[in-house]
Design goal:
Layout lengths: L1 H16 L2 H8 L16 H8 L1 H34 L5 H9 L6 H14 L6 H25 L4 H8 L4 H30 L2 H6 L7 H11 L4 H30 L3
Helix pairs in contact: 2-12, 4-7, 4-9, 4-11, 7-9, 8-9
């Protein structure tokens, strides 16, 4: 059974990674459009990406909007998770439902609502409008992640700190936060990735000045099938792989340095 599970996992991994075997080589192609296998090799589209502000600006916008969305979402999600998990109050079930509502509607429906509502507030085609719209989409993810961590948290360590004279702020700073730091980091990362990868709402809200990278990719594929899209995909893949390898190396170094 274990061997079958291993083979099945490798097959799933191969199925998911197979498109990368096409996208990555095409990023080094000299063909005027998407062509596989590439007729010739080169880095002209990499130079085109780094020299073209029409690609660089949306890339920078996506990182800025993603980081801002993660911060705002964490500022909302942390108090909400603590309140729902640790306290009992009137309307608790309705608040929990309200926090999860964005998961029940398709993004295209939410995008129409955001476009109408933010249009009246003159927040369309602004960074603030995109951040607020993405925050609404990310709050359920952060809330669920932190709620799961809080439900498995042993509150006896907090009670022990209180018995030793620590006030609630010191308990959170020196006990709760260090123990829940991995959950906080994962929740913030999920919020950033959700915002960075979101396309539908960005098409309605971002406009030209606050255009995000997914919107630029969508527009490029729709109008001219620019091979620079393959470059963007390869660079993002490289960032993810570099981050994964760096985190694994850091974890291994900590295990080596930690005495048994």
């Amino acid at each position: 059974m274990t061997r079958f599970s291993d083979w099945f996992a490798w097959l799933v991994l191969l199925f998911l990674a197979a498109p990368l075997a096409i996208v990555v080589p095409m990023s080094f192609s000299n063909a005027p459009s998407f062509q596989f296998p590439p007729p010739a090799w080169g880095v002209q589209y990499y130079r085109a990406f780094f020299a073209d502000p029409r690609w660089l600006q949306p890339t920078v916008n996506s990182f800025i909007i993603g980081a801002a969305t993660a911060v705002v979402t964490m500022a909302l999600g942390i108090p909400a998770a603590f309140a729902i998990v640790r306290h009992r109050f009137a309307g608790r079930g309705w608040v929990n439902l309200l926090l999860l509502l964005p998961l029940t509607a398709p993004h295209i429906v939410l995008a129409l609502g955001y476009y109408t509502y933010f249009g009246r507030l003159r927040l369309t085609q602004t960074y603030l409008g995109v951040v607020l719209a993405h925050t609404c989409l990310c709050v359920p993810i952060v809330y669920l992640t932190l709620s799961a961590a809080l439900k498995g948290f042993d509150r006896n360590v907090e009670r022990a700190a209180m018995n030793l004279g620590a006030n609630p702020w010191r308990v959170f700073r020196h006990v709760t936060f260090p123990m829940l730091r991995p959950a906080f980091l994962v929740a913030a990362l999920f919020a950033f990735i959700q915002s960075f990868d979101e396309t539908v709402v960005a098409l309605f809200i971002s406009g030209r000045d606050a255009s995000t990278l997914p919107r630029k990719i969508f527009d490029s594929l729709r109008t001219q099938a620019d091979p620079v899209v393959a470059v963007v995909s390869t660079l993002l893949l490289g960032i993810v792989l570099a981050g994964t390898i760096a985190s694994r190396l850091a974890a291994r170094r900590r295990r080596v340095e930690t005495p048994a």
